[in-house]
Design brief:
Blueprint (H helix, E strand, L loop, with lengths): L2 H71 L8 H32 L2
Helix pairs in contact: 1-2
Length: 115
Amino acid sequence: METLPEIVVTEKQKSEKRNTIWLIFIALFLLILVSINIYDHVIAYQKSKIALELINTQGEIIAGLMDSYNSDAYENPSLERISEQQLIATEYTIMGLQILGMQNNQIIQLLASTP
């Protein structure tokens, strides 16, 4: 009868050992998941920061574009006809629309990458 308690004790120890291994495995798995999640958030934050810098830079480009348009269209003494002024206005409008399209593309990429 003394062997029966030893067998029960060893089975209990094996069961506890298996449970401990599973708990360690689950804890490591959860740690990996949390690490991946934190990494994703850091990358998304960095992307949004870069996109914000690009948008601010493009705002400065648009302000410069308006200044150069004003000097080319209104302060240029070589312009003699309204059609030349309209042509310059159209060229600057196209440049402005291209910049607007790039900004929209960056905003869409920013929204798509945000979790």
